[in-house]
Amino acid sequence: MNDCLFCKIVKGEIPSTKVYEDELCYVFNDIAPTAPVHFLAIPKEHIASAADITPENSAVVAHIFEVIAKLSKDMGMTNGFRVVSNCGESAGQTVHHLHFHVLSGREFTWPAG
Ligand code: AMP
Ligand code: ZN
Q1: Average pLDDT along the chain
Q2: Spacing, Cα 95 to ligand 1 middle (Å)
Q3: Cα separation of 25 and 64, whole Å?
Q4: Which of helix, strand or coil describes residue 5?
């Protein structure tokens, strides 16, 4: 995707603060954090949203959740954390490349607004 912001971040064409990277995924700090810890975990391949996960590409999603679990331990997120993926207009998705927000370091209410 030539004009996808997060594809450009994966390629290093737009700067980001890297938290973690491997052959399948890239993890970086959100530019407008809403919690003391707020990073985004994304597949390197372009998947538009959670509605576009299929049997052919879902392995990377499982991998991303394994990475999030490891990072939660490595980063000492012992009091808990929240994983969010906004999908579509009414859910507030603004970047159309699948991403999982990982938030920690404060109390969270539920249900989310
Ligand atoms: P969403 O609104 O769920 O699609 O989430 C998109 C997220 O990307 C928002 O939390 C933004 O703050 C974040 N964001 C947008 N541009 C950048 C960027 N250049 N670097 C890091 N995070 C970004
Ligand atoms: Zn993309």
Answers
A1: 97
A2: 7
A3: 7
A4: helix
Residue with tokens 């999603």: 61
Other C-beta atoms lying within 10 Å of the C-beta of residue 72: 17
- Please give the distance, rounded to the nearest whole angstrom, from the Cα atom of residue 31 to the centre of ligand 1: 6
| CA 104/CA 10 separation, integer angstroms | 23
**Catalytic residue selected from 38, 46, 63, 99:** 99
What pLDDT does residue 1 have? 60
66-101 pLDDT tens trace? 999 999 999 999 999 999 999 999 999 999 999 999
The yes-or-no answer on residue 96 being catalytic is: no
